[in-house]
Amino acid sequence: MSERIAVIEGDGIGQEVIPAAIDVLESLDLDFEFVEGEAGDAVKEATGEALPQSTYDLAADADATLFGAAGETAADVILPLRDAVDSFVNIRPAKAYPGVDAVRPETDLVFLRENTEGVYSGHEDDLSDDLSTLTRVVTTSASEKLAHFACDYVEDSDDHDDFSVVHKANVMRKTDGRFRDAVVGVAEEQGVDTDEVLMDAFATHVCLDPEQFDVIVCPNLAGDVLSDLAAGLVGGLGLLPSANIGDDNALFEPVHGTAPDIAGQGIANPTATILSAALMLDHLGYTEEADRVETAVESVLAEGPRTGDLGGDADTDEVTAAIVDRL
Ligand code: GGG
């Protein structure tokens, strides 16, 4: 059966790493139809809209979406795109690969980030020349939905048994308190073991001893920040893929942004996006192909060629070609 894949490059290195992932997917010779949509800073400049309705509809109607990166317009692009696919969880694996010079080579984490609310649901106001406010939204229903997903995730997996709930409920008693109570409550009902870690303590402990953590369930902004921190432990943002999962739809994107410092030079690391494509293959049921892509990526990370962020001097095309060669 043909799969309709929405492809949205966005800005900056999104325009370099998404074509790399498409090269990898095309080399698998699957019955995929790739349909391009526009979004981001350049589209806003040209049309006044960062995310045209046609791109939103494309993502909403596709079997899956592959998205690159957004810069200044991130809030106008990424959040509505996650909404288009009804995503309630952002899965962010952060794993150290053999051959990569990682600060903590023993790191192997999966962040399950709440994907609809927290400070990201965005009720911001300027109340005076001196005062801006932000309303943080946390619901029991969204927290429980994430918790059910997390329980199923560890129960269905051979590699995980339990999860850590990361929050700051000792200070944000109502919002993170609600999040914590909802997640722990569902886990207790489903018989899944959890432990609780305050998010500031987590930041220290994950740097000192990442092996004590496995699956981490956390509120929206905490998931964004802590997964970027974990990227620092495994060799950088060029390595972290992500999957935004909804009930009937999903969107896959590298964790990194547009990287304006290197955009346009053809030297971006395509690994995070190619691994995001592997997560998409797995999600669509192409598990063997997903494994092949991950194995090929692992082999190239171990033996080279590598991009500059990993200490090599290869460009995006050379790394992509090496991955395709090993498939
Ligand atoms: N690849 C997605 C991207 O553009 N990331 C940059 C960013 O601002 N991310 C925020 C988020 O993931 O919530």
Automatic annotation (TrEMBL):
A single GO molecular function term of this UniProt record: isocitrate dehydrogenase (NAD+) activity
Descriptive protein name: 3-isopropylmalate dehydrogenase
Residues covered by the Isopropylmalate dehydrogenase-like domain: 4-323
Gene3D superfamilies to which the protein is assigned, alphabetical: Isopropylmalate Dehydrogenase
Pfam family, one: Iso_dh
GO biological process entries: isocitrate metabolic process; tricarboxylic acid cycle
InterPro entries documented for this protein: IsoPropMal-DH-like_dom (IPR024084)
This protein's UniProt keywords: Oxidoreductase
Family: Belongs to the isocitrate and isopropylmalate dehydrogenases family.
SUPFAM superfamilies per the UniProt record, alphabetical: Isocitrate/Isopropylmalate dehydrogenase-like
